[in-house]
Amino acid sequence: MLSVVCFAQTIYIEITGVRSNVGQLLLGVYTTQEQYAKKEAILKKTVYKHDLVNGTITTKIEGLPPGTYGIALMDDEDMNWEMAFRFFLPAEGFAFSNYYHTKYSRPLFDDFKFTLGDKDEIVVMKLRYLYD
Question: 50 in helix, strand or coil?
Fold first, then answer.
């Protein structure tokens, strides 16, 4: 057990492009495409926007062992814990770890995965909104 604690790292997450302080940010951490496709995150985190400054907020995830991870984020503006859709497209903002998704289809896990090694990691997540 001690070896897991000694090698656990912290991911510092900078979330940019948040359009308002209404609602909450929901993060899901995944380790495989299968988990991501089934929306079965190994870790979920809610970030409240009270520390939002100029559309940017930072948070962290601690205690993860080295490995491959990907983080998906949703700006849950209506605070109902699920993505709202308009004409089959996301009506709320979304972002992915170190990846700005410009297509209309869902990205693959390989698009936003990263490797957490023996050092802490900094991840940037830029929100995208399809509707104003």
Answer: helix
**99, two tokens:** 């990846």
Q: 115 is in which domain, residue-wise?
A: 2-126
**For 116-131, what is each residue's pLDDT tens digit?**
998 999 999 999 998 8
pTM value surpassing 0.85: yes
Q: Which of 47, 41, 19 is nearest to 29 (CA)?
A: 41
Please report whether residue 51 resides in a domain: yes
Show the DSSP H helices in the chain as ranges: 2-7, 33-38, 109-112
Our count of domains for the chain comes to 1
Cα separation, 32 vs 99, whole angstroms:
16
In a domain, 33, yes or no: yes
